[in-house]
Design brief:
This protein is an alpha/beta fold and 306 residues long. It contains nine helices and twelve strands.
Length: 306
């Protein structure tokens, strides 16, 4: 199921993006938008597939359905990509379901880097869509705001700091101190290339890796209001990832290593977050945003359209 999504070519904005793509233009000289929608789905998740295929067709969107790697049966040729030593060093277990999810999305990134397109929306198969989902994708294709990754789902309910407004009225901004989840996001081709370069091996989950802007250095935003939502009705099968094996380390220092890992991550992301806000909003306002309450979680000022 492979096709190019139907879009309106007449959008505004052609400023170069910080992560390697000109807004609303192909790099092949045609000037046509190049966004493709990719859905990652386990072949055995029949009901999930049926529902998301139906929903995307109802929205008038074409897409590519990619078979996910199954964490219960990781292909032997993928074993060399799993960073077991790194997981042990971090004091974190190896969750094969999360590893498989990363391997699945990694393959989509590799194909994107090699063959295009210049911009891609990646969706997991257990999501619902807001009615304005297609309009937001068009707005992201044509925005002049540089970006590498934009998370389309809500993620953690933490203070949101707005930065830029799309033509739909939705806001691009940052969640303090980082976003989380991989239910739905948009990524540019150059961002995919740089992400793969920074993450040659697979460790923990793709959701955590995408959120680590302090590590991969990509211009990363989240969207408010969100236009992708995790589907509640799949609670019985929502943990397909958790059906795969989990390998725990018996090392007596595991707890200490895990604590040190989280302490380092916490410090790095707070420093990086402060730098981003001070660059974007100036030293005084940026510092106030860092130490202040932000726009707050939930239906805060940053959640409103208009």
């Amino acid at each position: 199921m492979r096709a190019v999504r139907r879009v309106n070519v007449g959008g505004a904005g052609s400023a170069p993006r910080g992560d390697g793509v000109r807004s609303g233009e192909r790099n092949d000289g045609t000037g046509k938008p190049d966004l493709k929608i990719v859905v990652i789905s386990l072949e055995r998740a029949v009901e999930r597939r049926r529902r998301i295929v139906s929903d995307l067709r109802a929205l008038g969107l074409d897409f590519e359905l990619r078979d996910a790697v199954d964490g219960r049966d990781i292909p032997p040729e993928c074993e060399a990509l799993i960073d077991r030593a790194g997981s042990r060093r971090d004091g974190r277990p190896i969750r094969m379901g999360s590893i498989a999810n990363w391997l699945s999305q990694r393959q989509a990134f590799l194909d994107m880097v090699e063959n295009g397109p210049e911009i891609m929306a990646v969706l997991e198969d257990d999501v619902d869509f807001a009615p304005e989902f297609p309009a937001v994708l068009d707005a992201l294709e044509h925005t002049g705001e540089p970006f590498g990754i934009v998370f389309l789902h809500h993620g953690p309910r933490r203070p949101f700091v707005p930065h830029a407004r799309l033509g739909t009225g939705h806001r691009l901004g940052w969640v303090r101190w980082s976003h989380f989840g991989s239910q739905g996001y948009v990524i540019t081709r150059d961002a995919a290339r740089r992400f793969l370069e920074k993450n040659p091996l697979v460790r923990t989950g793709i959701d955590r890796a995408l959120a680590r802007y302090w590590h991969h250095g990509l211009t990363t935003y989240c969207l408010r209001p969100a236009v992708v939502h995790q589907r509640e009705e799949f609670k019985g099968t929502a943990s397909l990832i958790r059906q795969a094996p989990i390998f725990e380390w018996s090392d007596p220092l595991q707890g200490a290593r895990r604590g040190w890992f989280y302490a380092k991550e916490g410090m790095r992301k707070r420093i990086a977050f402060a730098r981003i806000l001070c660059r974007a909003q100036g030293p005084l306002k940026g510092t106030l945003r860092v130490v202040g309450p932000g726009s707050g979680p939930g239906t805060s000022a940053g959640e409103q359209i208009g």
